[in-house]
Amino acid sequence: MTTIYYDKDADLRLLKGKTVAIIGYGNQGRAHALNLRDSGIDVVVGGVPDATLDQAQQDGFETMSVAEAAAQGDVICLLIPDEVQQLVYREEILPHLRPGKAVDFAHGYNVHYGLITPPPNTDVIMIAPRMIGVGVRDAYVAGKGVPAFVAVHQDGSGQAWPKTLALARALGCTRNGAIESTFAEETELDHFSEHFVWPAVFRVLVGSYEFLTARGYQPEAVLMELWGSKEAAEVLAQMADVGIFRQMDFHSPTSQYGTLTHMDSALPPETRLCMEAALEEIKDGSFAREWELEQAAGYPVFTKLKQAAFAHPLNEMEEEVRKLAGE
User: Which entry of 107, 112, 153, 195 is annotated as an active-site residue?
Assistant: First the structure.
């Protein structure tokens, strides 16, 4: 049975008189800091001197080094990229983890794969909004909220769950509902989307572009039809708003019939094997090990793949289509 928490389940008073240290003021960090402050929580921001820390100062936050913020924070929100968390945690956060402190993550990766293991007297918690940072902030300002996964990996203080829910409420995530999860489930679901769902979507779109243009269809027309007009984005939005099949009523009967009659043939039966393989490499840790080796080697494969992606001719065509769309 899925457990969902709402505002009534969380007590903000648990964070009163405590300091939340935001480590990293990027996509999620800025949204978290602003929402927490607007909820009446004391916030400091830790980071390295750069444009993001300058932005934090402009937003009125007290800024300092990561180590200083970790020393002050009763709750330490580690909101920097996965691949740099280990070093920052080891060198600048771990020395300042007193008993009863909490380390909060927005993604379970490093904890789930054992790359970060805080001391047993520390709370290890997660609030993982299912939205980019700008959306987290915009929803809060609008008096709404975005859903989130919440989890407690380690309860060092005996109060980890109340802290987690209070923090989730301060972020606005319990306004619509926060789903109780685990670090493993959040990580594995997130990676499955990244390893199968979105690669499949990207490959279908790029492959369709290549297939249709090779058969003489105008590149501008193909790209506009596939995604350039933003119709695809609107379809996805309506899927979230009214349902994946209910949104079909916004399309013509011809469109609906064509979609429903081709669903089974669009992806071959062996696609299931691809799903199994993607999930297996996530669950057994082989992807995490591969990614660690890639980082240690200086990102050779990642760099080559990105270069190839941005060298694709459709990048130039997208510029033309954006002009047609009035962007």
Answer: 107
